[in-house]
Amino acid sequence: MSTKDFIEKDFYKVLGVPKDATEAEIKKAYRKLARENHPDANTGDARAEERFKDVSEAYDVLGDPKRRREYDEARALFGNGGFRPGGAGQFNFDLGDLFGGGQPGGPGTATGPGAAGGFGGGLGDVFGGLFNRGGAGTRTAPRRGQDIESEVTLSFTEAVAGATVPLRMSSSAACKACSGTGDKNGTPRVCPTCVGTGQVSRGGGGGFSLTDPCVDCKGRGLIAQDPCAVCRGSGRATSSRTMQVRIPAGVDDGQRIRLRGKGAPGERGGPGGDLYVVVHVDDHPVFGRRGDNLTITVPVTFPEAALGGEIKVPTLGGPPVTLKLPPGTPGGRTMRARGKGAVRKDGTRGDLLVTIEVAVPRDLDDRARKALEDYRAAVDGEDPRTGLFEAARGE
């Protein structure tokens, strides 16, 4: 907003009060309009948000007796035809020069009666503080909500197949007692330090400036006149809620999932923060996990391993599959059941990796012992460890 536009803007009309309104009448009008148009009470209503900004801007001036007096004097001089550039019989000067741009006595500088008389260092000194608050900085921008991190524990089956789980969270949200305004009466005031932006600039050297959150309003852009007892003027309070969260299929133990916009609600129509969920997965008594593949160890008898045959293998959440063991299958061999593993991101499945373990019986009856002794006699002279010691010695 230019200086000229700021001078010609009718703040009395914005608040709907006469020019001779008392401080109490101005405050009452502001509270009523601020409550009606506050962004937290009109989510998604751009016109209400703009109206709230205009009302706050008007009260920032008229609610301060000194600023109001300076504003009235500026309006009397410039808002009603006085000292307008190019007017007949008027001084020819630039408003930008008057408020700090021109040099005394130089081109475009007011030098006639009334230009500086009675105002010491000039009109720029009188109105400088007021006009510095009349720009775009008074527009309190929407503020993004905070990110939240939570944890959830799933069973092995839920992690593989995906699950929807209830998640109870505590986060910062708009205080219900004051509707997020921070003010007991719902009528906060625009912060005079940052002029509603929530940020202040400081010199960084080399012609650069750095921006920091405003310490007076803690980055909100608003200051409570009568702080809410619940949130102590912050406009935010702890809120607990339970939401249903969908955990995708194939999630890993320790994986951190990001859910956009599901964190703490924003302020003044701003977007919500993000929710980060850290997933913990319980062990399964039978199955294991290796990337997109599931693993299982299946015991077989010595005759099955030596002679070959068919064995049934369980799958996770589905019917068993049949695998064919070739004769002479050694213990520790891994076989693959395709498409019986974990769900991938593209919807396909990994494999089930089946490790064969030859089961050695602890107790043998006479018949089984006799059969094994006959087998040992039949293969007498065969040594599976042939060459092992030579290889160990590097020969």
Automatic annotation (TrEMBL):
Its main location: cytoplasm. SUPFAM superfamilies: Chaperone J-domain, DnaJ/Hsp40 cysteine-rich domain, HSP40/DnaJ peptide-binding domain. The keyword DNA damage does not apply. Signal peptide: none annotated. GO terms for molecular function: ATP binding; heat shock protein binding; unfolded protein binding; zinc ion binding. GO terms for biological process: DNA replication; protein refolding; response to heat. InterPro entries: DnaJ, DnaJ_C, DnaJ_domain, DnaJ_domain_CS, HSP40/DnaJ_pept-bd, HSP_DnaJ_Cys-rich_dom, HSP_DnaJ_Cys-rich_dom_sf, J_dom_sf. Binds 2 Zn(2+) ions per monomer. Zn(2+) 2 binds at residues 191, 194, 214, 217. SMART domains: DnaJ. It comes from the Bacteria. Residues 162-240 form the CR-type domain. One of its GO terms (cellular component) is cytoplasm. Residues 10-75 form the J domain. Keywords: Chaperone, Cytoplasm, DNA replication, Metal-binding, Repeat, Stress response, Zinc, Zinc-finger. CXXCXGXG motif repeats lie at residues 175-182, 191-198, 214-221, 228-235. Participates actively in the response to hyperosmotic and heat shock by preventing the aggregation of stress-denatured proteins and by disaggregating proteins, also in an autonomous, DnaK-independent fashion. Unfolded proteins bind initially to DnaJ; upon interaction with the DnaJ-bound protein, DnaK hydrolyzes its bound ATP, resulting in the formation of a stable complex. GrpE releases ADP from DnaK; ATP binding to DnaK triggers the release of the substrate protein, thus completing the reaction cycle. The J domain is necessary and sufficient to stimulate DnaK ATPase activity. Zinc center 1 plays an important role in the autonomous, DnaK-independent chaperone activity of DnaJ. Zinc center 2 is essential for interaction with DnaK and for DnaJ activity. NCBIfam families: DnaJ_bact (TIGR02349), PRK10767.1 (NF008035), PRK14295.1 (NF010888). Homodimer. This is Chaperone protein DnaJ.
